[in-house]
Automatic annotation (TrEMBL):
This is ABC transporter substrate-binding protein. Signal peptide: none annotated. GO terms for cellular component: endomembrane system; membrane. Its main location: membrane. One of its GO terms (molecular function) is ATPase-coupled transmembrane transporter activity. PANTHER family: ALIPHATIC SULFONATES-BINDING PROTEIN-RELATED (PTHR30024:SF42).
């Protein structure tokens, strides 16, 4: 074998090794942990039930997932910040916060519905007897979740549609559920608008009375959804498909076993089981998983949020988000073909 041939073979071997190392370096690390966000509400019962039953671990271990962490958030906006910056992989959250953060550059999609309706307006006990509709809220201070949340979006739209000027006729304060109920009890605010079971908790504690359900304010409105990062969709689509499958299974179980589910929810959110069961029976919430049922009102949320921030969005060249910008139906479609 001559020297030129030996040199050529050596060069080929070195180049091949370099290419192999480069390709290995370009491959993403194998995912072994999934982090899912949620909020302390009956709305997210499917996540809690699947966790209690061990379904998340059992269903995802076939894909190399060794651990699953559940992170609790007080409301949707901070949960979406966590999703936007890679602190969580998936989220049970309000669909309005998803839309709001998509406008701010979050790379994620809604892959399944979680539930519709299910938030209540509670007016302080001594004021509730005089409640006759939105006009009777004039001059009141109302606590709800932060701007961009489902509750803020629905409440402010409903008030505006009924001729009330925000922060002039009605003052809106950002509060989490425990803080808001406490403030209502001590008379620091006049009303709260919160997801179940917090309206029923407020009633049980004598803080006030439920005077409106969100389904009366906006019939059939989308509330919570299951959103996942585009990184997970791109790199681990089979995991996303299984997450949707597990969610569907858990949702069906939740609908068929309300008494058992009330105990699980009570354990997760730290409240009385009887209050949770009352909430399941009395609120206008409905658990679902079909994302197509949320499209119409989620596109409306996109319009409402865009109009609230129109000047800033137009300066940045943002356009109105539509269905294809918000949803990825492929995983649900694969489950239901």
């Amino acid at each position: 074998m001559n020297k030129k041939l030996i040199l050529s073979l050596a060069i080929i071997a070195v180049v091949s090794l370099i290419l192999i190392f480069l390709l290995i370096g370009l491959q993403p690390d194998k995912k072994t942990e999934i982090v899912i966000g949620y909020q302390p509400s009956t709305h997210h019962a499917a996540l809690m039930v699947a966790a209690e039953k061990g379904w998340w671990e059992d269903d995802l271990k076939q894909f190399g997932i060794e651990s699953i962490e559940f992170k609790k958030f007080a409301s949707g906006p901070p949960e979406m910040e966590a999703l936007q910056y890679g602190k969580i992989d998936a989220a049970y959250t309000g669909s309005a916060p998803v839309v709001s953060h998509l406008y701010e550059g979050m790379d994620a999609k809604i892959v399944a519905a979680v539930q519709i309706q299910g938030s209540g307006l509670v007016v302080r006990s001594e004021l509730a007897e005089n409640y006759t509709g939105p006009e009777s809220l004039r001059g009141m201070v109302i606590a709800t979740y932060p701007p961009g949340s489902i509750q803020y979006t629905i409440l402010t739209k409903w008030l505006s549609d009924n001729g009330l000027n925000l922060n002039k006729d009605v003052i809106i304060k950002d509060m989490g559920p425990a803080e808001a109920v406490s403030a209502l009890i001590y008379g620091h605010i006049d009303a709260v608008f919160l997801p179940s079971p917090h309206p029923e908790i407020a009633e049980k504690q004598g803080a006030g009375k439920v005077v409106e359900w969100s389904g009366d304010m906006w019939p059939g409105h989308a509330c919570c959804c299951l959103a996942v990062s585009e990184e997970l969709i791109k790199n681990d689509s089979e995991i996303v498909e299984q997450i949707v499958k597990t969610h569907i299974r858990a949702t069906e179980y939740v609908k068929d076993h309300p008494e058992e589910v009330a105990g699980i929810i009570a354990k997760w959110i730290g409240t009385d089981e009887d209050v949770v069961l009352q909430s399941i029976r009395e609120s206008d919430m409905e658990w679902i998983y079909d994302p197509y049922k949320q499209v119409e009102s989620v596109e409306k949320y996109a319009e409402v949020i865009y109009n609230l921030n129109r000047d800033r969005y137009e300066r940045r060249g943002y356009s109105l988000l539509k269905e294809h910008d918000i949803f990825d139906f492929r995983f649900y479609d694969n489950m239901t073909r």
